[in-house]
Structure formats: C-alpha cells, structure tokens
Amino acid sequence: MYLSQHTQPAQDVKVRRVRGALRVIAALGVVVAIVVFALFLLVAQPGEAPGTSGAYQYAKLHVTLYGKMAALSHHDVLKTTEPLTCSDGVQNFTCLLSKTDITPVLRELRKIDAAPEVSPVARRWVLVLDFNYTDGTWRWRNVTVVRGWELKWNNQTAYVFQAQIKKSLGEMVKINDELSEAFLIRRELKNITAVAVYADKIAIGTSNGTATNGKGKPDHKTIERIREYIRKRYGDVIVEVYYTPGATPVIGMAGG
Length: 256
Fold this sequence. Notes:
Elements: H1 15-27, H2 37-42, H3 55-60, H4 65-74, E1 84-87, E2 92-98, H5 103-110, E3 117-121, E4 125-132, E5 137-153, E6 156-163, H6 169-185, E7 192-198, E8 201-206, E9 209-212, E10 215-218, H7 220-234, E11 238-243, E12 250-253
Parallel strand pairs: 2-6, 7-12, 8-11
Antiparallel strand pairs: 1-2, 1-4, 3-5, 4-5, 5-6, 7-8, 9-10
C-alpha cells in the first residue's frame, strides 16, 4: 500500500524539501530526470558502462558496497533493485529489495573480492520512498519482507530485503531501453512524451488527457492501451500513466 505523502516515518527524511524541488522540476517538464539521483549518488559511474561480460570489472571499480551490488544488478548478474531510501518507521537508511535470498548476492560479491559479514534482520515490512509521477511527490510504499540481512564490509553497512518485487534493476534497464525505442523513436503508440522507471515501476507520460485547475488527467482509453501494450510484452508489472501536456519527449531511469 501507499502511505499518505504527509507521513514521515523518520524525522531525518527531508521529504518536504524534496517535494519543493520536484515541483520546480515538474514545472520545467523534466520530472523524470529525478529518478537518476539514487544510483548516481551511490554508484559513481566511471565512464562508459561495459557490456555484461565486463560486469564484474565494472563492479570492482565501485568503492561502496551498495555501488558494487547495484553495478552487478544493472547488468542483471544480481536480481535486486537499485539502492532505495527505506525506513523502519523510526530511522531511515538505504536498502536493496531482492527477488532472491542472500546466497547469490554473497556468491557474486566474492567474485569481485568483497566478502561482507552477514547477519539476519528480523523484519516483516519496510517502507520504501517511492516517486509518484502523477502529482510529482514522494510517498512511502509499504513492502512486505520475506527475509532480511545486514551486510558489513570495509566499515560500511548495507541492507538487503527479499521481497515480491515485479522486476529487478537489470530487467528494468532492458525494459526502459526497449520502451524508449518503441514509444519515442518508432512511435508505436502516439503522444507518448516520457518513459521512466523507478525501482520496479514503469512510468509513462502522455499528452492525451485534460488539465483542470493545474492538475492533469490522462485519457482513460490511453491508459488502458499503454498498460495492455506493456503487460503483453513484460507480464505482470507496475505501470503508472501520467499526463504531461506538450512536453518534449524525455527518457529517464534509475541507474541509466
């Protein structure tokens, strides 16, 4: 479920400041650009990203544990999301959501000379800060945790939570690339203005809709047509369709 945008599970999340900044960004018509912030802060990209065969070398170049895991996930070696802002209702921290348990994560990290200490974390749920493209705000999303782990390595602490996520980062990279080409280059569906992904959600902007009192609403038939197109190709996936009048086509994604 999504918690109210006014909910602040931990006091040190500066959600209000982020909201204000995002409203300015939205007004400039480039709201999808915000999705790059998480991975670019935590995964400094040293030049052009290599292909899958160079995924391990690419991950070795990153200095943080989150960066190494995200680099491996970017190339679909691991099945996790990018690093996300999370909360337990008391304090905020960074975490990864994972399709798998911790075993493949540790196995792949060892291949790049990172062997963290691991201890289980007893948690049934975690809050994940999620971006709502429709109104340009951050909201807390409640995610059910299957199992959780704390990883310690090189004076760093990371958290990985196994959860029922729809898609991992590597899968979302591929989807983002394919949909961007289909919608913004080949124009297989008309009036698509933006393609973005965040965590395991796909967000599509369309100029088909209406605006009342500054609030836009996409056309219902357009929403269904976009969702049907995506689900036919990628199965059960979270799709948000939002209204972006007259915007220049924009491509955005976390980690891309």
